[in-house]
Design goal:
The protein is of the alpha/beta class and 293 residues long. It has helices at residues 45-51, 77-91, 102-113, 137-153, 159-167, 178-185, 201-213, 215-218, 220-223, 247-252, 268-271, 273-289, and strands at residues 6-12, 15-22, 30-34, 56-60, 95-100, 118-124, 188-191, 194-197, 229-233, 257-261.
Length: 293
């Protein structure tokens, strides 16, 4: 079981970013972790507990989220990648970077824009091209993440109502344990009429435009010559088929190291004990293969 994280701040590229750092055992390397589009650094807490000191895990709150909620723009995946690279330089480059969902695309961008900062990548249900559909990027964002966007606009009268919303989410039909509940509640900030999530919708929309409408973002894996590890959940954002990463997309990128996550969805692949253990094991394997000698 990992210790409680240390709260860190990094002054990079004109803003102050918050981060959480779970300590590793003496002499263990550092892994930098990047959360998803509407998430925050606390999403990596379950993985840290399953790593159990096997690495120092530093999860950064991207601009407009969590303890970086007031950091301000510019937003966009390239800016996030430059911010993460600056954090890595402070921590000691190169390092292994892991990203979930949008964070996987940011991790790939860090590797492309700042290759000297990256030792290896572990991507969690993300980093592959997203379906474009027949709409503009904003329409595709609403179509794919409508309930998540509504969550950002909602003011909850109390923490209990926010927890109840997550408990009824189709991705968590097996229930929410006390640890996950604590991490979800850490997302809240107090406002005049109650509580809201510490996520800037403007940041989400700008980042979402990159994800759904930017050809260079969509082809990041095509340009990545060195294999990366990709953990793929069996089910999507609603806890049901189809998965976020279709089988045909996985088959297109057979040069990468794929780890299947049966029975897990886009949320539980990181948030559940089974998913966190799978991701932690993927990180251990990557750390082992990158260790000297």
């Amino acid at each position: 079981m990992a210790q409680r994280p240390e709260f860190l701040e990094f002054d990079v590229n004109g803003v102050t970013l918050g981060a959480l750092a779970w300590p590793g055992l003496l002499g263990t390397p550092t892994v930098v972790a990047i959360h998803g589009l509407t998430s925050n650094a606390w999403s990596w807490d379950p993985t840290a507990h399953h790593l159990a000191g096997g690495a120092r895990l530093v999860a950064v709150d991207l601009r407009g989220r969590g303890r970086s909620f007031t950091a301000g723009g510019p937003f966009g995946l390239r800016q996030h990648a430059d911010d993460i690279a600056a954090v890595i330089e402070r921590l000691g480059a190169p390092t292994i970077v892991s990203g979930h969902s949008m964070g996987a695309s940011v991790a790939l961008l860090v590797a492309e824009r700042h290759p000297d900062t990256i030792r290896d990548l572990v991507l969690v249900d993300g980093g592959t091209p997203l379906p474009r559909g027949d709409g503009d990027p904003d329409t595709m964002l609403e179509r794919t993440l409508g309930p998540a966007l509504e969550r950002l606009r909602t003011v909850w009268p109390d923490r209990v109502s926010y927890q109840a919303m997550w408990a009824s989410h189709p991705a968590f039909v097996e229930g929410i344990g006390p640890d996950l509940e604590r991490n979800l509640l850490a997302d809240l900030i107090e406002v005049d009429d109650g509580f809201r999530t510490a996520v800037d919708e403007t940041a989400v929309r700008i980042d979402g435009t990159d994800l759904f409408g930017d050809d260079e973002i969509a082809t990041l894996l095509d340009r990545r010559s060195e294999p990366v590890t990709i953990v793929r959940a069996e089910f999507g954002l609603t806890g049901e088929p189809p998965p976020l990463i279709p089988t045909e997309v996985r088959d297109r990128y057979r040069n990468h190291r794929w780890i299947e996550a049966p029975g897990l969805n886009h949320y539980t692949v990181l948030a559940s004990p089974a998913g966190a253990e799978l991701v932690a094991n993927a990180l251990r394997q990557t750390l082992s293969s990158n260790s000297p000698g």
